[in-house]
């Protein structure tokens, strides 16, 4: 993605490990999307990354084409795709390109889906317009704006953000789904909401803070090492007082919520 979009070259080797859902959660999400997308003909995923969603959806019968700006992420996808010996997952064609300037003709796809992308693209409205251009009338665009985490993980993120002085975590769409709804409606797309899939899990506060210090998440990439570790020490002191232990597992939730936009 151009225009200062966040490119995930540095995350290719560890992306899947840090964004994984529990198998039951992943199965539920894939099944719901497959029911919506299978049989629509070619379906596009811009920001396909390592194929975390594309490969299981292809195996479930969805005709997925993936696009991404990051060559290392696409290489990870190819390695996973080529290691598969059975199933439709081996048939995901890939294109390196920009979500704001899609290299496809109008109406080339029967549907599209977007996962954890629009918050990374300053020109997110252009990316939306491009999706609605390449998906034919009667098609659908599904959008998941980001797994919303609750509990201690949310508190730690907010504390770390304040400690580092970051004023805006991401360059793209961050103000909530209402802005996306308005943009889609301006193009004539009608909104449907999917029932969220909620995963209950536990986290280790110490390990979670270490991930922030280690620059795993894209919103910390602009910070220098000293700033991240200073903030980590501050958050650890707060967490120890707040929780009594940094090692004791704490409850957390992850919510996966898709919005469907039907094209007239």
Instruction: Give the termini separation.
Output: 27 Å
| Strands, total number | 10
- How can the largest sheet be summarized? 7 strands, mixed
**Annotated CATH homologous superfamily of the domain at 9-148 and 168-196 and 255-262:** Vaccinia Virus protein VP39
Describe the structure.
This protein has 264 residues and is of the alpha/beta class. The protein has a domain at 9-148 and 168-196 and 255-262: 3-Layer(aba) Sandwich (Rossmann fold). 38% of the residues lie in helices and 21% in strands. The chain is built from 9 helices and 10 strands. The chain has helices at residues 15-19, 23-37, 54-59, 71-83, 124-134, 152-164, 177-186, 205-213, 225-243; strands spanning 43-46, 64-68, 94-96, 109-115, 135-144, 148-151, 190-193, 197-203, 250-256, 258-262. The strands form 2 sheets. Strands 3-2-1-4-5-10-7 form a 7-stranded mixed beta sheet, sandwiched between helices. Strands 6-9-8 form a 3-stranded antiparallel beta sheet. Strand 4, helix 5 and strand 5 form a beta-alpha-beta unit. The protein is globular, with a radius of gyration of 19 Å. The model is unreliable at 85-89 (pLDDT under 50).
Features:
264 residues; alpha/beta; Rossmann fold; seven-stranded mixed beta sheet; three-stranded antiparallel beta sheet; 9 helices; 38% helix
Brief overview, please?
With 264 residues, the chain is α/β, with parallel strands linked by helices. The protein has a domain at 9-148 and 168-196 and 255-262: Rossmann fold, CATH 3.40.50.150. Helix content is 38%, strand content 21%.
């Amino acid at each position: 993605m151009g225009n200062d979009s966040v490119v995930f070259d540095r995350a290719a080797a560890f992306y899947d490990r840090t964004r994984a859902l529990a198998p039951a959660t992943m199965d539920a999400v894939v099944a719901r999307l497959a029911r919506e997308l299978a049989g629509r003909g070619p379906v596009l995923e811009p920001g396909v990354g390592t194929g975390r969603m594309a490969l299981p959806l292809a195996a479930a019968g969805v005709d997925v084409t993936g696009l991404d700006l990051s060559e290392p992420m696409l290489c990870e996808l190819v390695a996973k795709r080529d290691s598969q010996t059975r199933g439709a997952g081996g048939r995901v064609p890939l294109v390196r390109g920009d979500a704001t300037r899609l290299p496809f003709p109008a109406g080339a796809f029967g549907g599209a889906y977007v996962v954890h992308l629009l918050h990374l693209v300053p020109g997110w409205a252009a990316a939306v317009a491009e999706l609605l251009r390449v998906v034919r009338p009667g098609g659908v665009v599904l959008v998941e704006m980001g797994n919303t985490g609750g509990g201690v993980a949310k508190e730690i993120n907010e504390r770390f953000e304040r400690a580092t002085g970051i004023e805006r975590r991401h360059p793209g769409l961050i103000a909530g789904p209402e802005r996306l709804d308005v943009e889609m409606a301006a193009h004539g797309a009608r909104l449907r909401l999917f029932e969220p899939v909620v995963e209950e899990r536990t986290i280790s506060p110490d390990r979670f803070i270490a991930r922030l210090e280690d620059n795993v998440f894209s919103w910390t990439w602009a910070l220098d090492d000293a700033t991240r570790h200073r903030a980590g020490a501050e958050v650890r002191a707060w967490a120890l007082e707040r929780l009594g232990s940094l090692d004791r597992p704490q409850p957390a939730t992850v919510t996966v919520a898709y919005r469907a936009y039907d094209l007239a």
